[in-house]
């Protein structure tokens, strides 16, 4: 795994640690930040050590993100983020879940994509899942979810 | 013997129904590769909101117990451990299945799990009140150090890198401070409106344990089909019982090792199973047969990983310090019902505490009974493609996080933490210490502030927090756990580097 791959996450964690420490030591009332000051000190020291190790190329633990994994992951991650951060609220939970579930299933299902049978199976699995979610959350647990389009 | 008084509560219709449902569901979830017991329990928490505290805990306890045992099904029939706790079971269990002894291996695993599990819960029953009475002597400084101990011990023992483990713990402790300060009412680190009420523990637990699993399944691409389940031949249960009775040594070693390891915070079922397997092999006259399908390998591993379930809850129920990530999730389940474990749990809510513990005892027996009959069916469920599992878990996570307090903010927090954890895990960071930090942060802070007030009115901060026998003992354990992990890491580093140097020469 390249040194850069280790530098990026440890650098980000170190930056967050520095920000936490800066806020803890500068914000008022000081008494409210007594405990954050204590932990932010440890946070910065450990994050700094991790970052220096990454810079020097001493970080060896972890598999990193190999190219193949990134390619496999990207479509699922993008669909999931759109589903969670946009579609669930804008389209409504059940509509977004139906669309998101079907897209994810189609993207990652190893069954042939050129057979009608596989597509019918995916549609049935999606319908069953959304029906179960609706029964459990809407009917049984009475959780009111955003419903913008359809249901 | 107070627990006997509350035994009847377990047999109330709803409680019994939840216990049976949780056990069967847990067995199936446990048999599904990729769904860890911690994740299964975290995903179940939203379903307990409508239930009474004790009923919710019965469901979560049953799921915890049976997912650990259910993991043996895929370990034996698919050679894929359902959970890390079942790694040792794979060694001999799958070899037995390949020899046509799959049914016997499954029966032995469930019987051994039940014996180990019952012993572990009995230990929980008898140790908990003793420790709870002892814990009454704890002051704020001790509770502060205990919370720090909970984070550091898991951070150092449960992570591949000690520094990254401790750093994960620090991140968790910081996340716990987000929101409004309890005493002054000051805003802390609220950089997005979703964080106004702080980070909801349940949403965070779902995100930290479920989302990385979902992304890991995506990262594998289009695969998942083609897993071959070995057909289970019929085998008489009474023969399995006879076999188990003739292997008392493996049973005793597994149960003893699992119980002791369960009491140590941070050391999980994976270690229990592997240590028990190794010790049984050392003491067995048939040690050469281990790895080729020897029943003692299955018995030792399975009795150990279930024996650790009960003792792992001792520090949680007595000192509010979860000994494992799954115990941390159970703590989340207690907190949402307004119940705080620790010294007053047994004084103020004895019905909840004892009914929950009793249900775990009954749950072990039910797990064995159902396990023996539905193992074959559970193995079929394990064949569900990972694409379906990933989409199902993602959907459940979104609905589960939203249902905590009907807030989209919780869904955003869940997803953000989950995606962040997935990437951090790729670089050696660990979710367990982060979760412990998040859960123990408020306990540590409340006791730190309380202790500071006492210290300022008496001898000062240093004598109050660093003086006294118990404080020194707790600090010594914190330092020792870190030092031991650093030593182990350096040793591992040296072992890994040696062959490379030789090759270069």
TrEMBL record, chain A:
It comes from the Bacteria. The chain crosses the membrane at residues 7-25, 37-58, 93-111, 123-144. It comes from Roseovarius litorisediminis. Residues 12-146 form the DUF1468 domain. The lineage of its organism: Bacteria, Pseudomonadati, Pseudomonadota, Alphaproteobacteria, Rhodobacterales. Keywords: Membrane, Transmembrane, Transmembrane helix. Pfam families: TctB. This is Tripartite tricarboxylate transporter TctB family protein.
TrEMBL record, chain B:
Keywords: Membrane, Transmembrane, Transmembrane helix. Pfam families: TctA. Residues 16-436 form the DUF112 domain. The chain crosses the membrane at residues 16-45, 105-127, 134-155, 189-211, 251-277, 316-340, 352-375, 387-405, 434-455, 461-487. It comes from the Bacteria. This is Tripartite tricarboxylate transporter TctA family protein.
């Amino acid at each position: 795994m390249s040194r850069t791959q280790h530098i990026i996450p440890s650098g980000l964690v170190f930056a967050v640690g520095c920000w936490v420490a800066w806020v803890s030591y500068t914000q008022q009332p000081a008494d409210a930040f007594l405990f954050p000051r204590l932990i932010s000190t440890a946070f910065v020291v450990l994050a700094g050590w991790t970052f220096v190790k990454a810079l020097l190329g001493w970080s060896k633990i972890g598999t990193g993100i190999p190219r193949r994994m990134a390619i496999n992951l990207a479509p699922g991650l993008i669909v999931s983020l759109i589903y969670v951060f946009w579609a669930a609220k804008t389209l409504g939970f059940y509509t977004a879940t139906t669309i998101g579930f079907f897209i994810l299933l189609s993207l990652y299902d190893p069954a042939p994509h050129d057979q009608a049978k596989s597509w019918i199976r995916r549609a049935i699995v999606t319908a069953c899942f959304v029906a179960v979610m609706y029964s459990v959350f809407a009917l049984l647990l009475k959780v009111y979810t955003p419903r913008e389009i359809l249901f | 013997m107070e627990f006997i008084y509350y035994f009847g509560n377990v047999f109330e219709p709803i409680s019994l129904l939840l216990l049976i449902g949780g056990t069967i569901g847990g067995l199936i979830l446990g048999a599904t590769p990729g769904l860890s017991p911690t994740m299964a329990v975290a995903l179940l928490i939203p379903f307990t909101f409508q239930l009474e505290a004790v009923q919710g805990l019965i469901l979560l306890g049953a799921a915890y117990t049976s997912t650990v045992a259910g993991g043996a099904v895929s370990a034996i029939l698919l050679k894929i451990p359902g959970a890390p706790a079942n790694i040792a079971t794979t060694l001999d269990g799958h070899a037995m299945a390949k020899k046509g002894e799959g049914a016997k291996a499954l029966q032995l695993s469930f019987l051994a799990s039940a014996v180990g599990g019952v012993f572990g819960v009995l230990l929980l029953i008898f140790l908990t009140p003793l420790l709870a009475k002892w814990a009454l002597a704890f002051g704020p400084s001790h509770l502060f150090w205990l919370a720090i101990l909970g984070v550091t011990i898991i951070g150092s023992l449960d992570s591949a890198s000690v520094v990254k483990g401790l750093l994960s713990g620090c991140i968790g402790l910081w996340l716990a401070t987000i929101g409004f300060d309890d005493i002054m009412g000051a805003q802390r680190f609220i950089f997005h409106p979703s964080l106004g009420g702080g980070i909801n523990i349940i949403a965070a637990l779902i995100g930290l344990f479920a989302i990385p699993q979902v992304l890991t399944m995506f990262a594998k691409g289009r695969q998942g089909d083609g897993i071959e389940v070995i057909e289970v031949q019929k085998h008489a249960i009474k023969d399995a019982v006879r076999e188990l009775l003739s292997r008392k040594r493996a049973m005793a070693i597994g149960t003893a090792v699992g119980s002791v390891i369960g009491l140590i915070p941070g050391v999980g079922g994976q270690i229990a199973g592997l240590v028990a397997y190794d010790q049984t092999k050392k003491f067995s006259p048939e040690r050469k047969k281990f790895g080729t399908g020897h029943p003692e390998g299955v018995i030792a591993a399975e009795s150990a990983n279930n024996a650790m379930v009960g003792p792992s809850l001792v520090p949680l129920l007595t000192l509010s310090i979860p000994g494992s990530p799954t115990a941390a999730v159970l703590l989340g389940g207690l907190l949402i019902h307004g119940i705080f474990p620790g010294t007053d749990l047994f004084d103020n809510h004895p019905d909840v505490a004892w009914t929950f513990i009793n249900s775990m005892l009954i749950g072990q027996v039910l797990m064995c009974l159902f396990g023996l009959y539905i193992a074959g069916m559970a193995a079929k469920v394990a064949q569900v493609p990972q694409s379906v599992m990933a989409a199902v878990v993602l959907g459940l996570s979104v609905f589960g996080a939203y249902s905590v307090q009907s807030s989209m903010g919780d869904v955003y927090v869940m997803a953000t933490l989950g995606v962040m954890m997935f990437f951090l895990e790729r670089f050696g960071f660990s979710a367990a210490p982060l979760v412990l930090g998040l859960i123990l942060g408020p306990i540590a802070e409340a006791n730190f502030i309380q202790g500071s007030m006492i210290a300022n009115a008496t001898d000062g901060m240093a004598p109050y927090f660093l003086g006294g026998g118990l404080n020194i003992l707790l600090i010594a354990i914190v330092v020792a756990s870190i030092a031991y992990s650093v030593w182990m890491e350096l040793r591992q580093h040296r072992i890994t580097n040696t062959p490379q140097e030789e090759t270069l020469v």
